[in-house]
Backbone:
């Protein structure tokens, strides 16, 4: 089953990659994925939850895209506080033949590290040992889903060997994902003067399943008192959404073949 899944997704990725390199290619569809939701709150701060912040930022980004880039179709994996299985998020993007997938999240640190702050953007990849904990933690939502072993073809978020197989699925779009992720980080720094923690490759399942360039952007640390206030504020959320929008505009301009 794993081999069959691998072949299917790789063939799909190759077909989309061929489309990306074709003359006259345009970015027509973007999927925005607000992280967590419903009974999966994600990380919690002193007064807020990740699922609520990610949804508000995602909706603001979608509204900006509709206003400033109406030629692009915007699809949300969720628009309310509901549960969406991780496999379904990627499935929504794949079925829509999306050209870009953007997942919005908040970062968190355990007690004793609450001074840590900043923004980082993740792309799918074979992560190194030091990145393993973060990837497993992000993928742990699977265990809250019914029948997760059958849905994910035996994938076990606690088994590091599973990442070796999943890391192969994103090779086709790795470069484009990194390129877009760097644009997001640069936008955060130049526009909002945020502290950048850089672009990182991690084995985050929702990215591994997408057959297009895909990123997961961590918009700030909910565990940091200062950043929790910022990412909950109207001004902070507007700045974040506008920075991602500018990265999309630049990426679109650079990637489209005239």
Residues:
């Amino acid at each position: 089953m794993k081999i069959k899944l691998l072949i299917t997704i790789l063939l799909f990725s190759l077909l989309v990659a061929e489309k990306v390199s074709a003359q006259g290619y345009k970015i027509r569809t973007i999927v925005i994925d607000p992280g967590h939701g419903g009974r999966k709150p994600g990380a919690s701060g002193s007064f807020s939850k990740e699922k609520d912040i990610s949804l508000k930022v995602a909706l603001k980004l979608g509204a900006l895209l509709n206003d400033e880039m109406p030629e692009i179709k915007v699809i949300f994996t969720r628009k309310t506080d509901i549960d969406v299985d991780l496999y379904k998020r990627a499935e929504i993007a794949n079925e829509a033949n999306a050209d870009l997938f953007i997942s919005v999240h908040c970062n968190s640190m355990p007690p004793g590290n609450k001074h840590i702050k900043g923004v980082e953007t993740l792309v799918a990849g074979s992560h190194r040992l030091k990145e393993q904990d973060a990837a497993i933690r992000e993928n742990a939502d699977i265990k809250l889903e019914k029948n997760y072993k059958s849905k994910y073809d035996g994938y076990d978020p606690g088994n590091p060997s599973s990442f070796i197989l999943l890391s192969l699925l994103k090779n086709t779009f790795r470069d484009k994902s990194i390129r877009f992720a760097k644009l997001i980080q640069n936008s955060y720094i130049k526009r909002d003067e945020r502290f950048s923690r850089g672009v990182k490759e991690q084995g985050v399942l929702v990215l591994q399943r997408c057959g297009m360039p895909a990123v997961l952007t961590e918009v700030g640390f909910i565990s940091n008192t200062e950043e929790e206030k910022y990412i909950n504020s109207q001004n902070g959320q507007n700045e974040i959404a506008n920075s991602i929008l500018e990265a999309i505009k630049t990426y679109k301009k650079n990637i489209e073949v005239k």
About this structure: The chain has a mean pLDDT of 84. The CA atoms of residues 64 and 70 lie 9 Å apart.
